[in-house]
């Protein structure tokens, strides 16, 4: 049996309340967002049957349209349980999903109450913005006490696009005034770029901090911060008390600078303080603090971590050769060295570097051609194993090979010493065996 229904009034209310507290931030990452508001909204209306306010329950379903009449259906929703109606008034939670992106929409309600053979259409009603939704108009300020002020999701495109044309202003401006330290702008990506800045005439990304990090980018598999510019600065970082630009990578370069201009460098480090450092490299695990693949040009070189000039040599000796050992040419193995074992040996080459706590200063080698694991000092200062059995060693004495394997001794016989001198003693040895500091000078 059919009954006329008159829709007296329809009011659509969409509301959401975000509440909560934010714990004090102890790390350098933002706090995790609180749970996002759902896509449900409340639809409320009044139904009369034959002019009488209806009481009872009705099955209800809803559709979303892009026009007041006709048009294209955008979504549908069916209430999971019968909706109670009291004195003609009902209220139901409707959920079309994420179907609202700012375009005009109309809601079509259908009801099937007691004694109805089928669903009856109710007039379409326009879904108008409520006052809080109007707070998103241009110039509006979004304020929240929770962790998330605004969440925008766009799985297949740019979730947020901003354009600006006023000189001196930003298309996107981020500011943080938290007492314990927050982020003005924070970018994070699981597979792509956390923050991308590109400019055709200015700086791609400018980060400035008076006490900490100017720009911080983090990525699990790609580039954390990429700056590219065709005419000015790709990445610029400035800090008065800490690091201007910090790059860190677990499997690739921390910072890479590339220049295609012959008159400019890929990376430039400048320090105008007296005694300061323009570029500083650290390798605390035994690696290389700096690696240059190609020619290197400098005005001067100062080495503070060692005091000798050494080369890599190979040896046929089976036993490990200790630092401070005197080495000579191995006639039976061309190109290799062996531990000295005869006095006044004219085949002397140098002293194994690293004894007495004096590190190697400068090492020469050519990969894949002049190989060897033995680092032998051929010039400079190095400690040498010495013996004073035949004569005491005094500073200034010429030193040569000894009958004691791997040791040097005083070159008392000047005629035999010709061509067999290792260098001059800088420290002495009165008797027995010990270490003597030698200035290596093969003669």
Largest sheet: 6 strands, antiparallel
- Overall pLDDT score: 81
| Fraction of residues in β-strands | 25-35%
- Helical fraction: under 10%
- By DSSP, the count of extended strands is 26
CATH class of the largest domain: Mainly Beta
Just name the CATH architecture of the largest domain.
Beta Barrel
Flag low-confidence runs. 1-28
Question: Structural class, from secondary structure content?
Answer: mainly beta
> How many structural domains are formed by the residues?
3
Rg: 41 Å
Within CATH, the superfamily of the largest domain carries the name Head decoration protein D
Provide a compact summary of the structure.
It contains one helix and 26 strands.
Task: Provide a descriptive summary of the structure in words.
The longest helix is centred in the last third of the chain and has 4 residues, at 414-417. This protein has one helix at residues 414-417; strands spanning 5-13, 40-49, 52-53, 56-65, 73-78, 83-85, 89-95, 106-113, 120-121, 125-126, 188-189, 195-199, 205-209, 218-219, 225-229, 235-239, 308-315, 326-329, 336-339, 348-352, 362-364, 374-387, 398-401, 408-410, 421-425, 433-440. The protein has 443 residues and is mainly beta. Strands 4, 5, 6, 8, 9 and 10 form a six-stranded antiparallel β-sheet that branches. Strands 17-19-18-20-22 form a five-stranded mixed β-barrel. Strands 1, 2, 3 and 7 form a four-stranded antiparallel β-sheet that branches. The protein folds into three domains: 5-22 and 33-133, Immunoglobulins (Immunoglobulin-like, Sandwich); 185-255, no CATH class; 308-440, Beta Barrel (Virus Head Decoration Protein, Chain: A), CATH 2.40.300. It has one helix and 26 strands. 1% of the residues lie in helices and 32% in strands. A hairpin with a 6-residue loop joins β18 (326-329) and β19.
């Amino acid at each position: 049996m059919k009954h006329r229904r008159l829709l007296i009034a329809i009011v659509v209310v969409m509301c959401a309340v975000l509440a909560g507290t934010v714990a004090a931030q102890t790390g350098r990452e933002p706090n995790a967002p609180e749970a996002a508001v759902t896509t449900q909204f409340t639809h409320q209306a009044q139904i009369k049957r034959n002019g009488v306010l209806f009481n009872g329950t009705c099955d209800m379903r809803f559709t979303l349209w892009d026009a007041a009449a006709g048009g294209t259906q955008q979504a549908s929703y069916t209430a999971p349980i019968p909706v109670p109606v009291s004195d003609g008034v009902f209220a139901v939670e409707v959920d079309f999903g994420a179907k609202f992106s700012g375009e005009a929409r109309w809601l079509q309600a259908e009801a099937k109450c007691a004694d109805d053979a089928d669903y009856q259409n109710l007039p379409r009603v326009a879904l108008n913005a409520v006052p809080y939704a109007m707070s998103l108009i241009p110039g509006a300020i979004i304020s929240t006490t929770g962790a998330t002020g605004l969440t925008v999701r766009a799985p297949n495109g740019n979730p947020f696009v901003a354009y600006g044309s006023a000189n001196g202003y930003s298309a996107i401006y981020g500011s943080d005034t938290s007492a314990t330290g927050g982020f003005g702008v924070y970018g994070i990506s699981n597979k792509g770029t956390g923050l991308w800045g590109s400019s055709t005439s200015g700086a791609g990304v400018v980060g400035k901090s008076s006490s900490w990090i100017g720009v911080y980018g983090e990525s699990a598999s790609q580039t954390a911060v990429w700056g590219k510019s065709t005419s000015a600065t790709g990445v610029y970082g400035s800090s008065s008390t800490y690091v201007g630009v910090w790059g860190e990578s677990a499997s690739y370069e921390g910072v890479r600078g590339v220049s295609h201009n012959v008159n400019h460098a890929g990376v430039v480090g400048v320090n105008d303080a007296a005694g300061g450092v323009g570029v500083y490299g650290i390798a605390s695990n035994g690696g290389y603090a700096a690696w240059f693949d190609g020619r290197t040009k400098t005005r001067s070189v100062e080495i503070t971590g060692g005091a000798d000039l050494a080369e890599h040599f190979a040896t046929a000796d089976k036993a490990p050769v200790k630092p401070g050992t005197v080495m000579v040419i191995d006639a039976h193995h061309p190109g290799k060295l062996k531990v000295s074992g005869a006095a006044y040996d004219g085949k002397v080459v140098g002293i194994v570097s690293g004894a007495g706590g004096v590190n190697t200063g400068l090492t020469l080698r050519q990969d894949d051609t002049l190989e060897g694991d033995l680092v032998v000092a051929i010039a400079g200062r190095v400690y040498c194993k010495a013996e004073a059995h035949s004569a005491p060693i005094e500073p200034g004495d010429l030193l040569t090979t000894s009958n004691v394997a791997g040791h040097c001794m005083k070159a008392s016989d000047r005629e035999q010493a010709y061509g067999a001198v290792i260098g001059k003693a800088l420290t002495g040895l009165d008797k027995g065996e010990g270490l003597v500091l030698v200035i290596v000078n093969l003669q």
